[in-house]
């Protein structure tokens, strides 16, 4: 029975439903439907009010106040679209220990150093931490060399206190670490809860828009990899960045997920060191393993992350299996696509792989999910199966279909330009790939069998 005068609302996305259900039909979250009283106001006519500013022709709108200001961290500026726009709210989410606080300390230091040098005198940097003490943050800043007179530090977890610090310091950049540890006295619940996170985020967004203050929020992620807290948190902020990286590797990537002021598919590469974090403007070398001589089971490809082409190495190992069901181990690649490529390679390429253990992986902690790596995976497995090495000057780009055809992929010209820059001389590409750069010999292959034949004619040196 539906209760009269009662409504139900999802605490995650705010969807209102007529009756209680266990799972929200909009965001698919379980146990988030809450009973609410019928507080719907009567429909009333809205009276016209005085606008905050009169409407003007678009050509007369001042754009100088909305120019992005560089943070001083080049790889982060690339992802942000040039820097921080006044009044922008950025949510940087990542797993614990991946290096979020270390990166933002570097951002605060570079901002303070640039304002101290007079490059843009918009105020110092204010770093507010709710997870650590001020002494702990100071020790990390000293270890990484990020101490400056125009960097202000506060250890507080109350939103009202944060606003007081902003009034006292008058910063040009506010960093809050993290939004899940902050609490607002106007909201109920414990810090980190849905109500508190929503109230804190709304308060900081209002502060940023009112004063034109760039605000960077640190966010936690769930075990599924999504931002912890209500889904409305991602809608409130202007930019959502994911900070990714393997704990066993020094490589870190900042990936744009949402950006109202720039491209939402850019990535920035960083290297986490003992003395801090540093941008890697040319990360292709991290994903290649230089061998003294050609080794069977390796193939080079060019993947595109956002708008950035990156060279990566795919390695494969094929061995005789003693199990009834041979092992298929995958690292850094899409396991479903690898299984499909193996099936096509066995059916269309004549490789008998049914009784073999096959291991495929990328180098340097690189994670590749795009279909353009299919051809490189097939060549690496075929090379390992036949125990014949491919030319170290060869790159392979293309998607492999179930019929064995090699399909076109986007940005072949940009991919090959990066390969030319790093000294590669030959490339296997799909047919009709568009204009290609000079300096590299391209071999168009229409199917997988043709690609397996073409690699035999590529010189080893």
UniProtKB/TrEMBL annotation:
The record places the motif (RadA KNRFG motif) at 258-262
Q: Where is this region: Lon-protease-like?
A: 357-461
Stored SUPFAM superfamilies? P-loop containing nucleoside triphosphate hydrolases, Ribosomal protein S5 domain 2-like
An annotated Gene Ontology molecular function: damaged DNA binding
Q: What SMART domains does this protein map onto?
A: AAA
Q: Which InterPro entries does the UniProt entry name for this protein? A: AAA+_ATPase, DNA_repair_RadA, P-loop_NTPase, RecA_ATP-bd, Ribosomal_Su5_D2-typ_SF, Ribsml_uS5_D2-typ_fold_subgr, Rubredoxin_2
ATP-binding among the record's keywords?
Answer: yes
Write out the GO cellular component annotations. cytosol
> Pfam families from the entry?
AAA_25, ChlI, Zn_ribbon_LapB
The entry's keywords: ATP-binding, DNA damage, DNA repair, DNA-binding, Hydrolase, Metal-binding, Nucleotide-binding, Stress response, Zinc, Zinc-finger
Domain of life the protein comes from: Bacteria
Q: Name one GO biological process term.
A: recombinational repair
**Where along this sequence does the record place binding of ATP?**
94-101
Q: Which residues form the RecA family profile domain?
A: 65-221
Q: What does this protein do?
A: Plays a role in repairing double-strand DNA breaks, probably involving stabilizing or processing branched DNA or blocked replication forks.
Entry comment, domain topic: The middle region has homology to RecA with ATPase motifs including the RadA KNRFG motif, while the C-terminus is homologous to Lon protease.
Q: Which family does it belong to?
A: Belongs to the RecA family. RadA subfamily.
Q: What is this protein called?
A: DNA repair protein RadA
Provide the species name.
Answer: Saccharomonospora marina XMU15
Q: Gene symbol?
A: radA
């Amino acid at each position: 029975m539906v209760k009269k005068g009662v409504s139900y609302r999802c605490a995650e996305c705010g969807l209102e439903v007529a009756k209680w259900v266990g799972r929200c039909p909009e965001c698919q979250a379980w146990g988030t439907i809450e009973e609410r009283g019928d507080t719907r106001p009567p429909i009333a006519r809205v009276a016209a009010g005085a606008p905050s500013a009169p409407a003007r022709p678009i050509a007369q709108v001042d754009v100088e106040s909305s120019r992005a200001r560089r943070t001083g961290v080049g790889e982060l500026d690339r992802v942000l679209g040039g820097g921080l726009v006044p009044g922008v709210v950025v949510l940087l989410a990542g797993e614990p220990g991946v290096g979020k606080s270390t990166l933002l300390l570097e951002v605060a230091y570079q901002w303070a150093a640039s304002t101290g040098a007079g490059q843009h005198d918009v105020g110092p940097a204010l770093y507010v931490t709710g997870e650590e003490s001020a002494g702990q943050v100071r020790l990390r800043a000293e270890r990484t060399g990020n101490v400056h007179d125009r960097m202000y530090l506060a250890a507080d977890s109350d939103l009202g206190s944060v606003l007081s610090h902003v009034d006292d310091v008058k910063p040009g950049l506010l960093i809050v670490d993290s939004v899940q540890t902050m609490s607002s006295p106007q909201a109920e619940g414990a810090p980190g809860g849905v109500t508190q996170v929503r109230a804190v985020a709304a308060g900081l967004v209002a502060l940023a828009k009112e004063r034109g203050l760039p605000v960077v929020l640190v966010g936690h992620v769930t075990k599924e990899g999504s931002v912890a807290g209500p889904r409305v948190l991602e809608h409130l902020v202007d930019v959502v960045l994911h900070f990714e990286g393997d704990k066993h590797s020094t490589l870190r990537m900042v990936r744009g997920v949402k950006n109202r002021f720039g491209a939402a598919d850019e990535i920035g590469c960083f290297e986490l060191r003992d003395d801090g974090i540093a941008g890697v403007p040319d990360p292709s070398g991290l994903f290649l393993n230089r061998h003294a001589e050609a080794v069977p089971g390796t193939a080079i490809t060019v993947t595109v992350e956002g708008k950035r082409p990156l060279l990566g190495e795919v390695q494969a190992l094929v061995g005789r299996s003693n199990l009834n069901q041979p092992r298929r181990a995958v690292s850094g690649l899409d396991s479903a696509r690898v299984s499909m490529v193996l099936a096509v390679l066995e059916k269309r390429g004549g490789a008998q792989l049914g009784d073999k253990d096959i291991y495929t992986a990328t180098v340097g902690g690189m994670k590749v999910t795009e279909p353009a790596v299919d051809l490189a995976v097939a060549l690496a497995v075929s090379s390992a199966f036949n125990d014949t090495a491919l030319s170290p000057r060869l790159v392979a780009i293309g998607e492999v279909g179930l019929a064995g055809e090699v399909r076109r992929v986007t940005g072949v010209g940009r991919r090959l330009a990066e390969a030319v820059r790093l000294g590669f001389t030959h490339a296997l590409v799909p047919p009709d790939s568009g204009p290609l750069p000079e300096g590299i010999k391209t071999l168009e292959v229409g199917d997988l069998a043709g690609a397996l034949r073409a690699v035999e004619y590529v010189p080893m040196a």
